[in-house]
Design a protein that fits this description.
Radius of gyration: 22 Å
Distance between the termini: 34 Å
Number of helices: 9
Structural class: alpha+beta
Largest sheet: 5 strands, mixed
Strand content: 15-25%
Mean pLDDT: 92
Order of helices and strands: EEEEEEEEHHHHHEHEHEHEEH
Strand order of the largest sheet: 11-10-9-12-13
Shape: elongated
Length: 324
Amino acid sequence: MKGLLKFIAMGLVVLAACSKGDEYKVVVTFPDGSADGDTAYLTSYDSGDTLAQGVVKDKFVVLEGKVDGSLMSRLLVAGKRLGFVVESGEISIMMQDGKATGTPLNERMNALDAELEKVEDDSVAAQMFFKAYQENKDNGIGPWAFNYYLMYNTFTAAQIDSLLKEAPEGYRNLKRVQKAINAAQRLDATCEGKAFADFTAADGRKLSDLAGKGKYTLVDFWASWCGPCRREIPNIKKLYDKYSTKMNFVGIAVWDDPADTHKAMTELGIVWPVLEGGKNWTEPTDLYGISGIPHIMLIDPQGVIVARGLEGETMIKTVDELKL
């Protein structure tokens, strides 16, 4: 499911913990003493604010505070991260199990997570997220599920606005939702029939150096760590071997370490130009409203986007039908 479900427990914050509200206690237990001395942070996934923190000692740490209602939060400790619902009561986390137990919403999340793990079809997963949102609109699970519903669909800004009119007050102000709205607006600005948006790589090369130069250009947004990205490379190679003298090919390595990009290029036999910007390079995906990779698009000789979201046999057929 394009790498999304492994992050299933990472959530979206509904409300920030504050001085008022019910008390919560999170008891985190580790299988050994390797994390002793490390600081554990309970953070807002939406804002990144620290809600509570504590130092691991004798293989456990306790994080306490008050919460108004419930929220989906994230635990960061010893290089690991785990999302769960913060709500009134005592929450138990066994780090080796990777889940939180002991309170109603966390048990509900665990059951939902187990069901989602069985799903391989993105459209089915999207409907499950929407159902979870509808059933949990007014608790911490709701905004998390709403966010994933947006991620598993390609909505216009107007469609997201329509959904928000039916959502509880406050959803619109969540940073994740604002990001989805902005991405939808950028997606609208770079849809099929619009001119491609230019950007500059770390070495000074631009997409415009390769696209809109009198030839069709196939553009692949990818990363070395992305399994689906790697599986698309053989399909692109088939097209490259057939049409490299008649059209241009360019890879856009995003969210990736340059050393890993170069290693993958050698492993996968990528010989076409690849523009890079480093591990935190998000300009290309931001410009095009891309939330998941691979994302492959076709640009015509004049620089107009012909197709987006190409993959597999559909991509091959689309290029073959150009009759180059």
